[in-house]
Design goal:
271 residues, alpha/beta, Nucleotidyltransferase, domain 5, five-stranded mixed sheet, binds adenosine-5'-triphosphate, PilM, ATPase_NBD
Length: 271
């Protein structure tokens, strides 16, 4: 696995939040829509599967993979699609989506309707770890996805998911601890947590929560032959959190350039 190639691809995608690549009038585009607990992210790739545009919005419309605000989710997806179409000068026609492992058929259909409501035909419904692994290419190891609400694990053996688990404890819990520690609101803590220059001070405050995440990983991988841990999900953006996970699990940890964008990129790759 060449991590530098993966990191370069993710950095290009990150830059596509601000800039837009050129696309031909008839060029095939690959689109991925990630409906998460904290963010909705849409990624567009060109015919060579290079990132050309990316848009995202904070939206609490999904909980534990289930749509809790259908109208809100539809509104955000429509808005992001319109923004991307305007930026690219092209209409978007197809998209892949992803859901947490174990999501029932009915709930998958709800996700699908939200995206179809924005005019995109859904060509694939993936599970999130499989989407992340389209980028990472893990044969044997565990992908740990730490999002807003949960720490999810997917163990891969010979490139296939053989075990999944998902437990409460995610970025929301970090923000609650920061809010208590600084006597500020949850919303202020969310903003503060993402400020790179403050993350050295924040890490000691939230270390016990990250240790709890590491203990979740340990419990699920014990008695299994796991050679490495691969971190994805927004919470893994926190500077040096991977060091805490590495120390507490005793396993080598790989954290991509921007763990937040791995799953959205993987969804688009599967369109
Ligand atoms: P879940 O996986 O629980 O369904 P989700 O898919 O919405 O949620 P992500 O979008 O991967 O989760 O991550 C959202 C979390 O990541 C939020 O708690 C957010 O505060 C946190 N987060 C995003 N960016 C950063 C950052 N730069 N530093 C620290 N935390 C961040």
């Amino acid at each position: 696995m060449d991590f530098s190639v993966i990191d370069e691809q993710i950095r290009t995608l990150e830059s596509r939040l601000e800039t837009t690549g050129e696309v031909g009038v008839d060029e095939k585009l690959y689109v991925g829509v990630d409906l998460g607990t904290a963010y909705i992210v849409i990624v567009v790739l060109n015919s060579r599967k290079e990132p050309v545009a990316c848009a995202m919005e904070f939206a609490q419309v999904i909980k534990d993979g289930l749509v809790v605000d259908y109208m809100g989710a539809s509104r955000v997806v429509r808005k992001l699609v319109a923004e991307l179409e305007e930026r690219l000068g092209r209409s978007l026609t197809h998209a892949a989506i992803a859901v947490p492992p174990g999501t029932g058929k009915k709930d998958c259909t709800t996700h699908q309707y939200i995206v179809e409501g924005a005019g995109l035909e859904v060509t694939a419904i993936l599970d999130e770890p499989t989407a992340a692994n389209a980028v990472l290419g893990v044969d044997n190891g565990v992908i740990v996805d730490i999002g807003g609400g949960t720490t999810g694990l997917s163990i891969f053996e010979d490139g296939k998911v053989t075990y999944v688990a998902d437990e409460a404890t995610g970025g929301t819990h970090l923000s609650l601890v920061i809010a208590g520690n600084r006597s500020i609101s949850f919303e202020e803590a969310e903003v503060l947590k993402k400020q790179k220059e403050l993350q050295n001070e924040i890490l000691p405050v939230v270390r016990p929560v990250i240790q709890k995440m590491a203990s979740i990983v340990n419990r699920h991988i014990e008695n299994r032959d796991i050679s490495a841990i691969y971190l994805v999900g927004g919470t893994c953006c926190l500077k040096d959190m991977e060091k805490v996970i590495e120390k507490d699990t005793g396993k080598p940890v790989y954290k991509p350039a921007n763990p937040f964008l791995v799953t959205p990129l993987g969804i688009a790759l599967n369109c």
